[in-house]
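seq as requested:
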Amino acid sequence: MADFEFDVVVIGSGPGGYVGAIRCAQLGLKTAVIEKDPTYGGTCLNVGCIPSKALLESSEHYVAAQKDLKAHGVEIPSVTLNLDVMMARKDKVVKQNTEGISFLFKKNKITGIQGFGKILKANHVEVTANDGSKKVITAKNIVIATGSAPAELPFLKFDEERIVSNTGALALKTVPASLIVVGGGVIGLELGSVWNRLGTKVTVIEYSDRLGGGTDQDCMNVLKSKMQKQGVEFLLSTKVFAAQKNAKNVDVEFESLTDGKKSKITADVVLVATGRRPFTNGLGCEEVGIQKDPQGRIITEGHFKTSVPGIYAIGDVIVGPMLAHKAEEEGVALAEMLVGQAGHVNYNTVPGVIYTHPEIATVGLSEEQAKKDGIEINVGKFPFLANGRARAKADTDGFVKIIADKKTDRLLGASLVGPNVSELIHEIVVCMEFGGSSEDLARSFHAHPTLSEAVREAALAVEKRQRQS
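struct tokens:
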């Protein structure tokens, strides 16, 4: 070990990188993290999960003050939007989180290195600082945790003002009169929701005939209906094929995949949310022989090993859902494997959440996927309309759906749409981790009145035993 400066060097300080690095340090490994950006936290903390949730929260308060509080007897004569204050609050939340990572690095004696990391060969990483200076650091193990970047369309190049990625959509200086969202996935729906609530006319254009990809379509239909009532327009089975940026707006040309009809729509801003690509360019992968798949993801064997001994990869750069918590668990598992422990990630219980209103949360198999796979299942479903706490909150859209194996009753998955389901999903995740059944959930106490009772009722509904809350 004396031949190397570090036991582990992690390239990238996003959720996978910084959580994995902390676990390495906790296990006694001398650890360094290389980060190309001025602040730690990667996309998630800087221009992704955290700022988007801050704006979603603020925009929900704005709508509540405008419309929803009257039903509770709270009357506000005039509501005014101060976008500068809203954005400043978002920036403050981001700053608190990124500074928190710096604190954790110091607490765990992790060496933070600013600059762009490039692997020269096994055990050697070159770091290019912002001033152009270079240095080489050595480590027994190298972990690639560089995350992902927005996928750009050739005719919609990002300028982050009129044609924006998630980065630009989180930092618009004024509320645009109109916004076209290209892509009906998580990012498009969440950021479309933010600007719709603040007064923007939002049009979502999606190539597929469905929103949300593989997400349970019963859930997506509830969300789509709600967003349509809020003024969002959806064009499904529609291909965007050209665009022209003008001084004040962008013309977007599209074609219906059902009848071939071509049309054009103009908006102040276009958000391109057609997916993300692994960030592996410039890392030296090709030079050192690290193999990639056709999608540009790093190919790994068991235990996150790349084709080069001593070099590992986790998170968005490898196969699997591009989710912060998936990357975190991979970082922890890898750290434990490096010291001979049995690190493990259960990919069957990775939850997914869309933080719109209503929220959508899923885990495991959807009803549609289970049937497609030929699995015999029982389905329990319970509406929030029949939940006492949801009625008290005046937030009753949606339901909880539980999927259980027909023979064993083992939980196979769940799909939820409604209030606070981003929090409710986790009791199902834990139950699935322990190999639990719908009966286990149904026989567990749930305080009354709570939203979580809808989870229990859905579990009871698997055996047609549901009750009114």
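DSSP finds 14 helices and 22 strands in the chain.
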